[in-house]
Specification:
This protein is α+β, with helices and mostly antiparallel strands and 1281 residues long. Helix content is 34%, strand content 16%. Keywords: Hydrolase, Metalloprotease, Protease, Zinc.
Length: 1281
């Protein structure tokens, strides 16, 4: 995802009502690829404004994205934050694979995503807090969902689906279109009184076009230029699992699979650069296609073909018995694959939260026993009942030149659908309550101003056409609201105990009707809640971060849920089991403190200013918001009935209401959000909708070993009451530093250090190297720090900066295993620099909207900053970087917490089938090298504060550091900051010496550890497997020291297609030889060809192992190509059933080894090229993407990286031939002696229960790991492809 799309989700302008606050002194969430989520090294945030945390539907602009070419990955594993969980079943056929897709062309149904309300974007997540440590592997104690780094969102919505009259301009053919409008917000001087102003309606998006065909199909069109020459087309059918009868549970998801994968017209889009997907949730089935606007070899408009495919998928599927059987097998495999402990926890939460209605009984994935029974006729009848144009909405967002032309194309494709043999029927009123407009919107038979005399005379009377409209006869979803007087009987706390749970967690839910954001008063209320909860986040995060808190994380979420039809406030507390009572007590106490005393004047000013700055920044980026982000916000906002505004309107509206906010009102409206906790037990308090604790069966107690964990509902209630009775005091005001380095201090540093730019190369007296084609400038400071920067206008007044330090975990010695990863976490846990406390640094970041992350990988330590250039934001970010490099404070208690976190994480491995299996494989393949897995308890015990500090800070030396900056700054601004804050970092002796490290080796083969198994006792059966083997690094070096460029120089190039004449033959050979010679001598040859090879193997794995053989639902091939280390590896990940997993592994091996017997076709290569080039073109406007391109340009440890690696990227992809791919394939070790595999099987009959990851645990085991919880896995299905 581009940074522009990050921006769209990050501000108040998008989805106001979602407010989420996370408090965690120990957060570590970072999502990446599925395999990498199982391997340690992950990101952690250093500093970030707390408001960036509050909105799950958005990705903060200051959110750290994964940079290309990085080796380590993280993974949150937090079901609470996953979009694709139990609420939603997604089916995605990636016709052209995506960079972050686990496999190519797969149809993966996101079957069960409970977490609708935390609608996450597709990029990695960022956390708000001082020192977010991205370096670690997924620590179970996450609280901040990286994807949740979001700030205030103004409703990015429009008049809901019931109100097409939102558009004031009539258009032909029943279209309602709004062109640019002068409506911004009422001039306050013209409005008599505040009340009138607050009651005035918010402006609607000026470019959003709404309309309806005669058959009832509604459509929305929004022109959007990012990415250029591409568009999104989503067909939303208003049917989901809630509409299923008792014997139909899962049938909507089955139809999604059969209709989507059975479409021949969709298959014809393969090779065009289009990608498609689908999902099912409680109320919707959505089919979507992301496509170029024209075909590659012609200027033909591709939209009609895309619409034709959607028409066939949604309304004219063929329910062939063969396809039904194939998808039945896939869904059963999917059901077993996703049945993780996180999913089961989500289901428990949803069942108790909605125990009074059908939402608790209709998870989209369905029931296994019913899925096995349905025949094609049963499925067809359900389709006939619900899938028709009047029960659907089409969304088109993208690079659309003409709205009228698009409307004509929609009418041409869909206009006659549903009109054949139709009889008239009168509209029926909706039966739904507050969410009627979303769940069963009423259809207007005629749209105001939409028809002309000519139209009505030449067409059938619309009232005689609509046989069906959106079903209003379905029973309403009734909720027991958490409102005073609404519920008289409080449900006792519910307890879910399971042997695979490692940590204690409790969720306290409050459920109220959705408040639609339509007026300035509505927006003002959201702003006040936002301010109030920002204060709560900051207080808990900073107050407890510097101590040893009893909780692992505390998270408060207040958000609207379109999928559930309500607004849910959730307080989630996670803790080690031994501390659960104290954790609840602290959480309740802090909530009560804020409710009783409110926010301070300083907090009101601080967070209001920060939200306005963020809003202003997003408004400036209005032309850089991606189509998919615009579309998702429109869909969600329409579902909730919020007014859709563009970013500029949102900012103007926010400014208009911000000046009317008072401290008293903020505290009054905010207090109401917290009453279900702060007034718990009082007769006037709203009753919680549910209280659910998820706890382990057993815990480890020192001296006693494994002991049964006992807890009762009455004890939970007592712990809550103890927090209500604890004495509390008002929050003191904090002094916020305006700067970290004063002008006098800076001047003194300049005089002492005398910073200058020096020649980039000793032999060439050039101090500045600027490349006109790319806009990249390279500089070198006198202290040895290399600097690359690029001025970019893509993200208005925004910038990003990354420091890369060579070394990473690879430099850990045998005496200091884990020192780097624990050291980076220690730095993040402390959060202090110089004489400034953690609280002061946090507030400094809030005021300047800075987000800073810290990460250690196997090869590097990386710090990344996001900032705005408004009000000296860039200088503030440079000040912070200087202080971290020069004046970091290392604290004993921070070290203790970091060490405990990794100990906890290590001990939680046996509770996870995937992690235990991956851990065992990595230890076997890398000969027990602990630098690539979690440090063991013994290693952690041997670490000291000094050893971890030295391990980290010894890498922070001049010649070993490279800083890259991309943003909307001037040359004068950036070079001033570089000299002032990087140039004044003290030079270090030996700074040009590359950090040495022990060589990495693969285990000698053959070995009895090449095939291993893991067994896990569980109530439900599941299986997974990993297959891995050696590969070269990105630059052509192998683990045995071989330089592959020396071996490929002798290969000859053969023409791919025969020329037409003898002259052409000679000329063609020469041209082709020159092209191949250039490609094969290019430093990126192996990086390019390996990437294309991975796409091809992914596609084949899906086609063979999943689609043809039906052995898995999910299979992927991933490459880890290092930059500094002279090795790499590949991993195939496959999920299956215990009965099929061994066959699945054999099938994967056959595909991997079968590229010689089953030759790669030109069509396969062309498709892989289009996929990667399309990805590159889509990301090229992103500042963060450019940071990845700039990485290592001047790194001595990556000598082959040069400017041509950026300039020639596109031409290198285009020049690659099938022969080149085979040259890369030959470098993968796929023979039986080189290949490692590990199969994991879970179930009640599993062979041997896992007791330890691989090594014996020999130390104190008091720190138990955590499996995060939440209701995010069961509300929708997985991607179908």
């Amino acid at each position: 995802m581009t940074a522009s799309s990050t921006a769209v989700s990050s501000s108040f302008l998008m989805s106001v009502p979602q407010i989420r606050t996370c408090f965690s002194p120990r957060d570590d969430s970072y999502s990446r690829s599925r395999w990498r989520r199982l391997i340690p090294i992950r990101p952690t945030l250093l500093y970030a404004p707390p408001l960036s945390q509050l909105h799950p539907n958005s990705l903060s602009i200051f959110y750290p994205q994964r940079w290309p070419h990085e080796v380590a990955n993280g993974g949150s594993g937090s079901c609470r934050r996953k979009k694709n969980s139990a609420l939603k079943v997604v089916s995605s056929l990636l016709c052209e694979t995506q960079a972050d897709a686990s496999f190519s062309q797969q149809y993966n149904c996101i079957t069960c995503s409970l977490n609708h309300r935390r609608k996450h974007s597709r990029i990695p997540r960022s956390i708000s807090g001082v020192f977010i440590d991205k370096s670690t592997f997924h620590l179970p104690c996450n609280s901040f969902d990286a994807a949740s780094v979001s700030r205030v969102h103004v409703p990015y919505a429009s008049v809901g689906p019931n109100e097409p009259h939102a558009a004031s301009t009539a258009c032909p053919d029943g279209i309602l279109e709004r062109q640019d409008s002068d409506l911004l917000y009422p001039d306050r001087e013209l409005v008599t009184g505040l009340a009138e102003f607050l009651n005035a309606e918010l402006p609607s998006h000026p470019k959003l076009c709404r309309g309806q065909l005669k058959n009832g199909l509604r459509y929305l069109i929004l022109p959007n230029k990012v990415p250029a020459n591409r568009f999104e087309a989503h067909m939303e059918v208003h049917v989901g699992s809630i509409d299923e009868e008792d014997d139909e549970q899962g049938i909507a998801h089955m139809i999604e699979h059969v209709a989507f994968l059975g479409s021949k017209k969709r298959e014809k889009l393969l090779g065009t650069g289009a990608r498609s997907n689908a999902y099912t949730d409680f109320h919707h089935t959505v089919f979507h296609i992301h496509s170029p606007t024209t075909t590659k070899d012609a200027d033909d408009d591709i939209l009609p073909s895309v619409l034709d495919a959607l028409n066939e998928i949604a309304f004219h599927p063929k329910f062939l018995s063969s396809r039904v059987e194939k998808e039945r097998r896939a869904i059963l495999s999917e059901l077993q694959m996703m049945n993780t402990i996180e999913y089961r926890v989500d289901c428990q939460l949803l069942q108790h939260l909605h125990s009074e209605n059908k939402l608790s009984k209709r998870f989209p994935i369905g029931l296994e026993e019913q899925i096995k029974k349905w025949d094609a006729d049963k499925i067809r009848k359900f389709h006939e009942r619900w899938y028709f144009p009047a029960n659907a909405t089409l969304y088109i967002v993208g690079d659309i030149d003409s709205i009228s032309k698009t409307v004509h194309q929609i009418d041409t494709v869909f206009g006659q659908t549903g009109l054949e043999n139709e009889t008239a029927s009168a509209p029926t009123p909706s039966a739904f309550g507050a969410m009627a407009s979303f769940l069963v919107p009423k259809l207007s038979v005629g749209l105001s101003g939409s028809s002309s005399p000519e139209k009505s005379s030449s067409s059938i009377d619309q009232s005689k056409i609509l046989k069906k409209e959106r079903h209003a006869v379905r029973p309403p979803v009734q909720h027991n609201w958490s409102l005073p007087g609404h519920n008289v009987h409080m449900k006792p706390p519910q307890i879910f105990q399971h042997e695979l749970l490692q940590n204690f967690s409790i969720n306290m839910f409050c459920k109220i009707p959705v408040s639609k954001v339509r007026t300035y008063g509505d927006l003002r209320n959201v702003l006040m809640k936002r301010i109030f909860l920002s204060a709560l986040h900051f207080r808990i995060n900073t107050r407890y971060k510097s101590s040893n808190p009893p909780f692992t994380s505390i998270e408060l979420d207040h958000s609207d849920s379109g999928r559930e039809g309500c607004t849910v406030t959730t307080l989630t507390v996670t803790a080690e089991p031994k501390n659960w009572q104290s954790a609840i007590k602290v959480a309740v106490q802090e909530v009560r403190r804020l409710k009783e005393f409110g926010v301070t004047k300083g907090e009101l000013t601080r967070y209001t200013d920060a939200l306005l700055k963020d809003s202003e920044h997003l408004a400036a980026m209005i032309d850089n918001v991606s189509s998919v982000d615009n579309l998702e916000f429109i869909m969600e906002s329409d579902a909730l009935g919020h007014t859709v505004m563009d970013q500029r309107q949102g900012h103007q509206s926010l400014v208009a209401v911000a000046g009317t906010v008072t401290l008293e009102e903020v505290n009054s409206i905010g207090a109401k959000v917290l009453e279900f906790i702060s007034d718990f037990g009082k007769p006037t308090a709203p009753l919680p909708a549910a209280i659910v604790a998820c706890v382990p069966n057993k815990v480890h107690i020192d001296g006693l070993g494994e002991t049964e964990f006992k807890i009762s509902p009455s004890e939970i209630t007592a712990a809550m009451r103890s927090g209500l009775e604890e004495p509390i005091e008002a929050e003191p005001e904090l002094e916020v530093p305006k700067e970290l380095i004063s002008s006098s201090q800076l001047e003194e540093l300049r005089l002492q250090r005398r910073p200058t730019f020096v020649p980039l190369l000793p032999e060439v007296n050039v101090t500045k190297l600027h490349d006109k084609d790319t806009g990249i400038t390279q500089r070198l400071l006198s202290n040895g720090i290399a600097v690359n920067y690029k001025i970019s206008k893509s993200e208005s007044r925004g910038g990003v900066m990354r420091l890369i330090v060579g070394g990473g975990r690879a430099v850990e010695s045998s005496e200091s295993k884990g020192a780097v990863i624990v050291g980076v976490r220690t730095l993040s846990e402390g959060g202090r620099v110089g004489n400034f406390s953690r609280e002061q640094v946090e507030l400094f970041c809030v005021n300047h909207l800075i987000n800073c992350s810290l990460e250690s990988t196997e090869e590097f330590i990386c710090m990344e900053f996001r900032f705005t250039l408004r009000e000296n934001g860039m200088r503030a970010a440079f000040e912070l970087l200087h202080m971290v490099l020069e004046h970091s404070v290392w604290l004993d208690d921070a070290f203790d917490r970091a060490r405990q976190l990794y100990l906890s994480y290590y001990r939680s491995i046996p509770k996870s089938l995937e992690r235990a299996t991956a851990h065992k494989l990595m230890m076997a393949m890398l000969n027990g090298d602990e630098r690539f897995v979690e440090p063991t308890p013994l290693s952690l015990q041997n670490l000291t504060l000094k050893s971890v500090k030295d391990a980290v800070m010894n890498q922070f030396v001049g010649g070993n550091m490279e800083v890259s900056i991309v943003g909307d700054f001037s040359e004068e601004e950036i070079e001033s900051c570089i000299i002032d804050y990087l140039g004044t970092v003290r030079a270090t002796r030996g700074s040009n010496r590359e950090k040495e490290f022990s060589r990495v080796v693969f285990r000698p083969s053959p070995s009895d550890l090449q095939f291993q198994q893991v067994f896990l006792k569980d109530t439900d059966e599941r299986a997974c497997a990993y297959i891995a083997g050696p590969a070269p690094n990105r630059w052509g070096f192998t683990v045995d020291g071989k330089d592959l460029f020396e071996s490929i120089s002798d290969f000859s190039a053969a023409p791919v297609t025969p020329p037409k004449s003898e002259d052409q033959l000679v000329e063609g050979k020469d041209v082709q030889k020159d092209s191949q010679r250039k490609l094969r001598s290019h430093p990126l040859f192996f990086g390019i060809t390996m990437g294309l090879l991975a796409e091809i193997i992914n596609s084949r794995l899906f086609t063979t192992v999943r689609d043809s053989l039906g052995l898995t639902y999910d299979v992927s091939f991933e490459l880890s190509l290092f930059d500094r280390l002279k090795l790499g590896w590949y991993v195939i990940s496959v999920t299956s059933t215990p009965g099929k997993v061994y066959k699945a592994v054999d099938a994967c091996k056959s595909v991997l080894r079968g590229l010689h017997s089953n030759k790669i076709s030109q069509r396969e290569l062309d498709r892989a090229k289009r996929t990667l080039l399309m990805r590159h073109e889509a990301e090229i406007k992103s500042n963060v993407y450019w940071l990845g391109l700039l990485a290592h340009l001047q790194a001595s440890s990556v000598p082959r990286k040069e400017i041509s690696c950026i300039k020639d990227l596109t031409s290198l992809y285009e020049a690659t031939t099938i022969e080149d791919i085979y040259l890369a394939y030959e470098q993968l070790k796929v023979d039986e002696d080189s290949l490692y595999s590990c199969i994991g099987v879970a179930g009640s009959q599993a062979g041997d229960e896992i007791t330890a990851p691989l090594e014996v645990e020999e130390t104190d085991d008091s720190f138990q790991g955590a499996i995060p919880v939440g209701r995010g896995l069961s509300t929708m299905t997985r991607p179908t492809t």
